[in-house]
Amino acid sequence: MDNITPNDMTAIVEADRAHVWHHLLPHKPLETNDPRIIVEGKGMRVWDQKGKEHIDGVSGGVWTVNVGYGRVEIADAVRDQLVKMNYFAQSAGSIPGSRFAEKLISKMPGLSRVYYANSGSEANEKAFKMVRQISARQHGGKKHKILFRHRDYHGTTIACLSAGGQEHRNMQYGPFTPGFVSVPHCLEYRAHEQGLAGDDYGVAIANEIEKVILREGPDTIGALCLEPITAGGGVIVPPKGYWERVQEIVEKYDILLHIDEVVCGVGRTGTWFGYQHYGVKPDFVTMAKGVASGYAAISCCVTSEKVFDMFKDDHADPLGYFRDISTFGGCTAGPAAALANMKIIEDEGLLENTIQMGEYMLDQLWALSEKHEVIGEARGKGLFLGAELVKDRKTKEPADEKMVQAVVADCMAQGTIIGATNRSVPGYNNTLCFSPALIATKDDLDQIVASVDEALGRVFG
Ligand code: PLP
């Protein structure tokens, strides 16, 4: 804020109030309250326009800034690249594009090709289009349906919302794209609502996917698209046996497996990718947020060579190659930032830190549940955690959304930024979310948990 005077800041706030349409926000309150403007960041902390310091428990609000704020080495890498070569359409290659693809693939055995784009939604759209084109070329268009899971989210475009398992995000935006079919969520804590509670829940709920496939006709299903661990839909860590059974099912029915790593990818769960906890073999992996930790816009749709091979040759079919472009997929800032981001994760041992700190924080959340009845369950993997709030531990009736939001607001007032799962739909608007940067220390996590402790005490008494 060095060279911004108080008068400048007043003008900035007023310009924001007058002209900026913020994401995911009802704006009426901003007519009387100041919009929040984040001015500076360093490590785990950010400062707002009033100079107030916050510890960031959600890495830029939406699980993005994996390596923390103020990373000069990423900024330098981007600057050096931009002055040399900022952009050329990705029908040609670039030095950072080539280097990052090689580096990324070295972390993803079994996969081989990187398709560059800009956002998680766009990367998912690429995969959907590839599935549809494979169906058109190899199955006369019949094997075109894409299965998605209730409570998963894959992005904001109409096709991504068509694959969206969070009802409130879709309401009022239809009609949607045909050919997307829902399968049940796999949250063990709420298995009783599906009539499936028991030791074999993981296999039983995966078998529900098979039932949908048989109902629709296996020869109509092109792909299954899943988050490895559901993020905004409730921080849902799949139960034991689930992924193994999913893998068997997709192989049995010749269905392509698309894993959406937009949140889990690049270290968030303590492995490079969330699916790597489960030994599954995806055909597509999409990623965005943590790829460059928000230092540049980049997303990737990574595929196997088998998928790539299907688009290689246009001799037999002049329409046979992937006729798709993302203009800004040719920006070199993205892969330059992504390379520097990955180097930091390696050099600083951040995967290991994520596992250790994640276990520590999960323990702290369970410890908090001994004091606060309202915490029904704490769950997560690595530094990707949630605490589900309930009115009653026996019935598991979800806590009131207003109270959940009051906890988030109370933490904010204390200078601690936490999140909560998506609003408006009863059943999964009641989970507090935590995704601190992978550099978090025990002291940082203690500070976040202490704020939650205080907030829960004040809000729930
Ligand atoms: N997939 C998942 C799992 C997400 O959580 C999100 C965004 O939150 C997306 C896709 C969409 O990414 P983007 O907002 O970059 O389009």
UniProtKB/TrEMBL annotation:
The EC number(s) this enzyme carries: 2.6.1.77
Organism for this UniProt entry: Jannaschia donghaensis
Taxonomic lineage from the root: Bacteria, Pseudomonadati, Pseudomonadota, Alphaproteobacteria, Rhodobacterales
GO MF, one annotated term: taurine-pyruvate aminotransferase activity
Record bears the keyword Ribosomal protein: no
Coiled-coil boundaries: none
A Pfam short name: Aminotran_3
Name of the protein this chain belongs to: Taurine--pyruvate aminotransferase
Database matches in InterPro entries: Aminotrans_3, Aminotrans_3_PPA_site, PyrdxlP-dep_Trfase, PyrdxlP-dep_Trfase_major, PyrdxlP-dep_Trfase_small
Alphabetical list of SUPFAM superfamilies matching this protein: PLP-dependent transferases
Family of this protein: Belongs to the class-III pyridoxal-phosphate-dependent aminotransferase family.
Transmembrane segments: none
Cofactor: pyridoxal 5'-phosphate
PROSITE patterns for the chain: AA_TRANSFER_CLASS_3
Keywords: Aminotransferase, Pyridoxal phosphate, Pyruvate, Transferase
CDD domains assigned to the protein according to its UniProt record, in alphabetical order: OAT_like
